[in-house]
Every structure is written in structure tokens, then in C-alpha cells.
Amino acid sequence: MPATSSARLEARISPELQQTIKRAADIEGRSLTDFVVGAALDAAYRTIEQAEVIRLSRDDQQRFAEALLSPPAPSPGLKRAMKRHDKLLRSE
């Protein structure tokens, strides 16, 4: 059987907070540790999703789709940047 590794996480909380969390864990039929780890993981996933997922209104979705389907002509600045980019790639 392969060895598993784990890390330890400690937190100091008030007895009242511990009792509240323990009560919630008991209601779900989970150990205190399992409940806290599960709650922390859920919060971590929500935080990551909020940071990585872009949510657009319907109007913004429509504008985005239109820009993809009918992109505007490149501006002079973009044309200069594309030329510099091409030049850099050719010199490598």
C-alpha cells in the first residue's frame, strides 16, 4: 500500500465557536475535523471560482459575441505592435 502524506492545520477558537461547529458537524453526522476540512475546501473552491470565472451580463455577452464574430479593424498602435512582434520572432 503506498504511503500517504498529510499536513496539519491548527486554529485557536473560542469554546462557543467550537460548540457551534461541533453541533453543525453532529447534525450532518460528520466528525468535527471532517466538517471543518469540508467547509474550508468549499470556501476555497468558491474563492478560486470568484477569482477565475468572469461573469457577464446578457448585454455584455452579446457585445463579446459580436466582437468575436465581427472584430474591429486593427488600430495603428496594434499594427505597430504586430510588426514589432513579428520582427522579434524572426530574430530568434
Characterise the protein shown here.
This protein has 92 residues and is mainly α. The protein has one domain (15-90). It has four helices and no strands. The chain has helices spanning 15-28, 32-52, 58-69, 76-90. Helix 1 crosses helix 2. The longest helix has 21 residues, at 32-52. The two termini are 50 Å apart. The model has no long low-confidence stretch (mean pLDDT 94).
State mean pLDDT (0 to 100 scale).
Answer: 94
Q: Estimate the helix proportion, in percent.
A: 55-70%
Q: How many β-strand stretches?
A: 0
SSE order, as H and E? HHHH
What would the principal axes of the Cα set say about the shape? Answer: elongated
What's the Cα radius of gyration?
Answer: 26 Å
Give the distance, in angstroms, between the N- and C-terminal Cα atoms: 50 Å
- Count structural domains: 1
Structural class: mainly alpha
Report the β-strand fraction as a percent range. Answer: under 5%
Give a short overview.
This is DUF1778 domain-containing protein. The protein is mainly alpha-helical.
Essential attributes:
single chain, 92 residues, mainly alpha, elongated, DUF1778 domain-containing protein, TacA_1-like, Ribbon_hlx_hlx, toxin-antitoxin system
Lay out the secondary structure.
Layout (H helix, E strand, L loop, with lengths): L14 H14 L3 H21 L5 H12 L6 H15 L2
Helix pairs in contact: 1-2
